[in-house]
Every structure is written in C-alpha cells, then in structure tokens.
Amino acid sequence: MTQPGMMSAMSPEMQACVDACMSCHAMCEETMSSCMQAGGQPQMQIMRALMDCAETTRMCADMMMRRSPMSAEMCAMCAKACEMCAEACMSMPDDPQMMRCAEACRRCAESCRTMAGATM
C-alpha cells in the first residue's frame, strides 16, 4: 500500500512504453538533424511527421511518468503519430537513418497501443 501523496510504482509495461517513447523521441530528433543536412522538398514533408512524432512521444512519456489520468488517450494519439512517422520514413527506403527511425516509431506505436488499452 502506498502512503498518501505517494505514487505507486510504474508497471513494467508502462516503464517499457516510457522507454520506447523516449527512444523514439531521440531517434526522431536525430533523423530531423539528418533531414536538415540533406535539405530538399521531400524532406520537408518528412520533417513534419518527425516533429509531430518527437513532440508526441515526449509528451506521452511525461504524462505516463506523472500518472496523468489522460495517459491512455495520449498513448492512443502517440501510437497514431508514430505510425504516420514510420510511414513517412519508409518513403526513403535507401536511407539507413530513416529505416532506423521507422523501426523505433513502430516499436513505440506497438507499446503505446498496448498502454492505450490498459487501465492506467
């Protein structure tokens, strides 16, 4: 039993989701940097997806860590942002950085879908 005012320990599933979100956030930031160096119009479309995903994953992790009552809804939105980002990254299959980012996004989306269906 927890003391009044103390948060309960994070479940292993929630911790895994926070970790996946933070990993995805970092990968999206790295990939944005790569896109900025490359330039060009196609990268601008991908940049939007990367920015949305980076911000959403960070916010999702923050909300889970503070046990927000809106975490499940945020996880559902995060999963969608991650899937959209993965699809955008897959539009450049010859770019290894994009492929790594797509994989991180897919892992995060899967974990967030699990948490979105869980009682938090």
Précis, in short:
The protein is an all-alpha fold and 120 residues long.
Number of strands: 0
Succession of helices and strands: HHHH
Low-confidence segments, ≥5 residues, pLDDT <50? none
First and last CA, distance: 17 Å
Radius of gyration over all CA atoms, rounded: 15 Å
The shape is elongated
Helix content: over 70%
Estimate the mean pLDDT confidence.
Answer: 90
Structural class: mainly alpha
Strand proportion: under 5%
Describe it.
The protein is mostly helical and 120 residues long. It has 4 helices and no strands. The chain has helices at residues 12-38, 41-65, 71-89, 96-116. Helix 3 runs antiparallel to helix 4. The longest helix has 27 residues, at 12-38. The relative contact order is 0.19. The mean pLDDT is 90.
